[in-house]
Amino acid sequence: MNLVATIDHGHPTVVVISGDLDLASGPTLEGVLALPNLRRDPNLVLDLTGVTFMDCAGLGILIGARKRFARRGGNARLGPSSAAVKRLTALTGTADLLT
Q1: Coil, helix or strand for 94?
Q2: By the 8 A CB rule, do 57 and 90 touch?
Q3: Which residues contact 3 (CB under 8 A, 6 or more apart)?
Q4: At 2, phi and psi to the nearest 5?
């Protein structure tokens, strides 16, 4: 399944992600998160309710996004998440880091 990301420019900005978030689809999400309008917004919520599969590469992208936003004085955090995302973040001990 392909990764799909849509952006809701509310306050905060919400990026809704669905499909597989893995090594193959990661560059697509990185491109979305690097869009100029997202770089200007200090706060970002990632809605991962539609993510059907996520591997460690996908998790690394989320952690990297959090770090980039924090360096700019902002915050990128996980919002609602699917069971697949919750399982991986629980197994890796990163749930608290991303919420």
Answers
A1: coil
A2: no
A3: 17, 18, 19, 20, 21, 25, 28, 29
A4: -85, 150
Q: Is the pLDDT of residue 32 over 90?
A: no
Token representation of residue 62: 């989320």
Which residues are within 8 A (CB) of 83 and not within 5 positions of it... i.e. 6 or more apart? none
Q: What are the pLDDT digits (tens) for 4-30?
A: 778 877 778 888 999 999 999 999 999
> What tokens appear for 99 in the block?
């919420």
Contact 77, 44 (CB under 8 A): yes
Name all domains of the chain by residue range, CATH numbers in brackets.
4-48+56-83 (3.30.750.24)
Question: Read out DSSP for 40-86?
Answer: H-SEEEEEEEEEEEE-HHHHHHHHHHHHHHHHTT-EEEEEEE-HHHH
